[in-house]
């Protein structure tokens, strides 16, 4: 299942990044929506502290 859209990812259309299988158009930056290449980015999560 694609982490972005939740649909099944078939072998011919998949790209693997961050240990997950994605559709190529779904593998994009959450901030700017730029399409990413497998291995050319990193996952960053921040928590806001009060």
TrEMBL record:
Residues 1-50 form the LIM zinc-binding domain. Coiled coil: none annotated. PROSITE patterns: LIM_DOMAIN_1, LIM_DOMAIN_2. GO terms for molecular function: metal ion binding. Keywords: Acetylation, LIM domain, Metal-binding, Methylation, Zinc. Seems to have a role in zinc absorption and may function as an intracellular zinc transport protein. PANTHER family: CYSTEINE-RICH PROTEIN CRIP FAMILY MEMBER, LIM DOMAIN-CONTAINING PROTEIN C. This is Cysteine-rich protein 1. It comes from Chelydra serpentina (Snapping turtle).
């Amino acid at each position: 299942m694609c982490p972005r859209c939740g649909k099944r990812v078939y072998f011919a259309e998949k790209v693997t990044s961050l240990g997950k299988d994605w559709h190529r158009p779904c593998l994009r930056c959450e901030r700017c929506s730029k399409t990413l290449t497998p291995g050319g980015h990193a996952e960053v999560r921040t928590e806001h502290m009060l």
